[in-house]
């Protein structure tokens, strides 16, 4: 019985290693359609390193479970201290962690740095349970909004103050419709009208919470024209699961026409 | 440190005044062992409820398109066999809340902490027995309040176990959680009050009541874990108490701690201004992150103490293991922001929290390597407790490594709020804690009930649980990579998640097997408590101080004087010793540096 347990534990661990590795070899990430390839590289490197550690430590565990079982005549070593060994694995682990850390922070710095001056500006405002999209128009300035002016009946979901001169050329899209030009950097200004939402573009490696009371910007460059999904990643109420928007990346020369067609 | 003489005097006092009536002996008890079992059994009951909630979640995720008319008896949950979306939100909210606080903080810490601390430090009872009893009787109303929320008004809290405002602060933000969220807050305040009383007791007992000869550096790993957990709890829970009361005020008394200006909810302007939802997240995670170590550290302690007894070999790198626990505890206070990388908090702050997060991986790795070194050249006896200890090591590796993915700020952009996170914390925090509790139960059962648990049944339970646990939670990494969000009532509304339904069905079937296997544990626990084989005082030939007590220990724990300790509790296979273990109380000058640890 005891013999069986050690063997079983070793085997179960082996199977885990094999199956886990086989599945991690598949392509799970949604196909990348933005310039954020650094994230995918980071994931690949992390998978490689943690995968090797996973395999090595589990194989050791499996081997020990099988090899050091109690048997007639077996004895255990009275061995419980080795400062050199402790220092080696502490420092090696620390070195690997610092490697990851520096890489991650460099990547983070790249993603958070100021957007290019020519980046297009768009605003996305989450509400229960839809995304409101607004372009600032030719002046590049968003008109004032006021909670008191919110009027869903007249499709003024975000409370745009139409008396503000800057508001005159603001373009408010039908809800859940975001159009972006291919190949141009875009600044997305993310807000929320009510509770926390999270603006998630799985194909673009973009996720940013829409935090009530704050306007947070994130920027990226869509690379491939096509139709994609916008998801809400933060629990926002009973309709959270259906807070689904559509992102249409179009060729730059067809952008204005596409927006105009959507407004029809 | 108290001396044996004073203990002996105390012993007489206790022995004379051991309560005789049922109600003072087993209900309003001040005896640490009874209180420990009370906590444990309550946690078991709460686990049963929270487990059933999880099963219902899984049912929905696998087959949202099917109808289940047989579930219509859950009148708040199902209409014509279809689950209501708000019920789904209640399910995951309450599953998380109950499991984290009322099961996995309670069973290992309050349950085994109370059971074991006096036995392992060599004391007649906890430092403050009355406070200890009061702690349990504060905990129980918390459980009742939390559970009752399902039956009040439109149902239980539905804002997630993290209760992020404004969703949790605005009473109309989640239809149906009017009273539910308020009861959640009240239940939490009861829980925190109870945990604080327990924590004071733990710290005082461990610092002041250790028997003669038991220096800090001779303590078993379980004691170290309990000590650190109590400190973590005392330092971090007040933040949540404050936050919870502020949330209560926002909800009922018109304050705006967490609600900013200019909100519009369902077309109505919200009459609050000036608050910050980020403030809640900081306060919540200031508790929330130490809290996950409150769950995990006891399991890591149990694992070390169980492992040595079944390896017949001393713990490897004791000082490093203690150091690693201290480092984890310290660092746990400077990592909370890694739950908020994409919240809109300053990116610079995110960088600071990434540093702490990556650093905490180092002591965690040290623990794993030391366990492996303990196993090396040992003589493993595969009894049920050892299987669970091996399971903890396995889950700690699997769940720990994914932490390295999530701790990297930039990668977290994709993984935040996906099933990758769910996989991570179920393996490392929930899984390690749960397996630790199962191991500890089988190991210390003789000290609970004076009987042994059935080993064969225990092993069958382990194998079903171990395999089903991995089949349930490991595939969640893959769907997380694919972008599958958490807390989604019907994932297949999204085109990019449609092809993940078969994996979700596999996970659900595994979860059902996992859930059903726990019946074996309940049978084994209650059957063995009354009918199990009688245990000897030291059935595992273990070296720790608690094994010098009778099984079960009577009132006051040791019939005579409290023994003196002469060595650490890890002296197994000592060269020159008569047996393959040397009890902590054995004064013989053998072992490393003649037992001078």
Oligomerization state: heterodimer
CATH architecture of the largest domain in chain A: Sandwich
Task: Report the order of strands and helices of chain A.
Answer: HHHEEEEEEEEEEH
What structural class is derived from the secondary structure elements of chain B? mainly alpha
Radius of gyration of chain B: 24 Å
What fraction of residues of chain A sit in β-strands? 15-25%
Strand order of the largest sheet of chain A: 3-2-1-5-8
**Which class do the helix and strand fractions of chain A yield?**
alpha+beta
- How far is it from the N-terminal to the C-terminal residue of chain A, by CA? 75 Å
Query: How much of the sequence of chain B is in beta strands?
Result: under 5%
By CATH, the superfamily of the largest domain in chain A comes out as Cupredoxins -  blue copper proteins
Characterise the protein shown here.
With 264 residues, chain A is α+β, with helices and mostly antiparallel strands. Chain A contains 4 helices and 10 strands, in the order αααββββββββββα. In chain A, the strands form 2 sheets. In chain A, strands 3-2-1-5-8 form a 5-stranded mixed β-sheet, with no helix packed on it. In chain A, a hairpin with a 2-residue loop joins strand 1 and strand 2 (130-135). In chain A, helix 1 (2-24) runs antiparallel to helix 2 (37-67) and helix 2 (37-67) packs antiparallel against helix 3 (83-112). With 597 residues, chain B is an all-alpha fold. Helices cover 61% and strands 1% of the residues of chain B. In chain B, strand 3 and strand 4 (268-269) form a beta hairpin. The longest helix of chain B is centred in the middle third of the chain and has 35 residues, at 277-311. At the A-B interface, helix 1, helix 2, helix 3, strand 7 and strand 9 of A face helix 4, strand 3, helix 9, helix 11 and helix 12 of B.
Put the structure in a nutshell:
The complex is a heterodimer of chains A (264) and B (597). Chain A has 264 residues and is an alpha+beta fold.
């Amino acid at each position: 019985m005891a013999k069986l347990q050690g063997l079983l534990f070793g085997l179960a661990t082996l199977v885990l290693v094999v199956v886990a590795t086989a599945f991690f070899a598949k392509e799970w990430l949604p196909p990348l359609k933005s310039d954020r390839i650094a994230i995918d590289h980071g994931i690949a490197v992390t998978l490689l390193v943690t995968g090797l550690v996973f395999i090595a430590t589990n194989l050791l565990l499996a081997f020990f479970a099988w090899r050091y079982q109690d048997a007639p005549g077996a004895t255990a070593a009275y061995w419980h201290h080795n400062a050199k060994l402790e220092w080696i694995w502490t420092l090696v682990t620390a070195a690997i962690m610092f490697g990851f850390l520096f890489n991650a922070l460099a990547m983070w710095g790249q993603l958070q740095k100021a957007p290019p001056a020519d980046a297009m500006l768009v605003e996305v405002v989450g509400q229960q349970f839809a995304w409101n999209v607004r372009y600032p128009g030719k002046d590049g300035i968003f008109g004032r909004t006021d909670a008191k002016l919110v009027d869903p009946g007249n499709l003024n979901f975000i409370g745009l103050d139409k008396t503000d001169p800057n508001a005159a050329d603001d373009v408010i899209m039908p809800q859940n419709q975001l159009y972006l030009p291919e190949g141009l950097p875009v600044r997305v200004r993310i807000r929320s009208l009510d509770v926390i939402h999270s603006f998630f573009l799985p194909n673009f490696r973009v996720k940013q919470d829409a935090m009530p009371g704050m306007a947070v910007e994130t920027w990226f460059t869509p690379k491939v024209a096509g139709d994609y999904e916008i998801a809400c990643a933060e629990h926002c109420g009973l309709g959270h699961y259906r807070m689904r928007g559509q992102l249409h990346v179009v060729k730059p020369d067809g952008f204005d026409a596409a927006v105009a067609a959507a407004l029809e | 440190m108290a001396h044996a003489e004073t203990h002996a005097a105390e012993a007489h006092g206790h022995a004379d005044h051991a309560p005789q009536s049922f109600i003072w002996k087993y209900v309003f008890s001040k005896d640490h062992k009874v209180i420990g079992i009370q906590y444990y059994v309550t946690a078991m009951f709460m686990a049963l409820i929270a487990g059933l909630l999880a099963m219902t979640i899984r049912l929905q995720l696998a087959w949202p398109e099917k109808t289940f008319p047989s579930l219509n008896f859950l009148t708040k949950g199902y209409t014509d066999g279809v689950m209501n979306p708000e019920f789904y939100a209640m399910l995951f909210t309450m599953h998380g809340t109950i499991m984290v606080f009322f099961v996995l903080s309670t069973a290992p810490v309050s349950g085994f902490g109370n059971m074991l601390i006096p036995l392992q430090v060599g004391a007649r009872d906890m430092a403050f027995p009355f406070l200890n009893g009061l702690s349990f009787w504060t905990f129980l109303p918390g459980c009742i309040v939390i559970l009752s929320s399902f039956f009040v008004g439109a149902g239980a809290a539905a804002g997630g176990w993290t209760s992020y405002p404004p969703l949790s602060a605005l009473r109309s933000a989640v239809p149906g959680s009017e009273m539910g969220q308020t009861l959640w807050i009240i239940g939490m305040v009861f829980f925190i009050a109870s945990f604080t009383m327990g924590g004071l007791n733990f710290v005082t007992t461990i610092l002041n009541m250790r028997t003669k000869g038991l220096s800090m550096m001779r303590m078993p790993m379980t004691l170290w874990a309990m000590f650190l957990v109590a400190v973590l709890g005392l330092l971090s829970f007040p933040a949540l108490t404050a936050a919870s009361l502020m949330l209560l005020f926002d909800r009922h008394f018109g304050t705006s701690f967490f609600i900013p200006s200019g909100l519009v909810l369902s077309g109505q302007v919200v009459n609050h201004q000036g608050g910050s939802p980020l403030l809640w997240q900081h306060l919540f995670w200031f508790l929330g992150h130490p809290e996950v170590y409150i769950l995990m550290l006891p399991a890591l302690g149990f694992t070390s103490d169980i492992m040595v007894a079944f390896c017949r070999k001393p713990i490897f790198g004791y000082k490093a293991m203690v150091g690693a626990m201290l480092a984890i505890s310290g660092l746990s206070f400077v990592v909370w922001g890694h739950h908020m990388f994409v919240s809109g908090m300053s990116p610079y702050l995110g960088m600071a929290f990434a540093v702490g997060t990556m650093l905490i991986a180092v002591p965690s790795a040290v623990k794993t390597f030391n366990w492996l070194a303990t196993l090396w050249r040992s003589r493993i006896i595969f009894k049920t407790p050892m299987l669970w200890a091996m399971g903890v090591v396995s889950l700690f590796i699997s769940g720990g490594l994914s932490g390295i993915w999530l701790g990297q700020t930039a990668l977290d952009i994709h993984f935040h709020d996906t099933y990758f996170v769910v996989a991570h914390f179920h393996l490392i925090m929930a899984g390690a804690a749960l397996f630790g509790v199962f191991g500890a139960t089988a190991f210390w059962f003789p000290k609970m009930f004076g009987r042994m648990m059935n080993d064969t049944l225990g092993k069958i339970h382990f194998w079903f649980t171990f395999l089903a646990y991995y089949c349930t939670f490991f595939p969640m990494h893959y769907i997380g990579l694919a972008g599958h969000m958490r807390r989604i009532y019907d994932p297949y509304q999204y085109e990019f998640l449609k092809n993940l339904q078969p994996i979700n069905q596999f996970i659900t079937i595994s979860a059902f097997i996992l859930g059903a296997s726990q019946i074996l544990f309940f049978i084994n626990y209650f059957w063995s408590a009354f009918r199990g084989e009688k245990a000897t005082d030291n059935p595992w030939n273990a070296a720790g101080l608690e094994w010098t007590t009778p099984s079960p220990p009577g009132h006051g724990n040791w019939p005579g004087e409290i023994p003196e300790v002469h060595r650490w509790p890890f002296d197994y296979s000592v060269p020159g010793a008569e047996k393959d273990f040397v009890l902590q109380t054995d004064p013989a000058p053998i072992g490393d540096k003649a037992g001078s640890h």
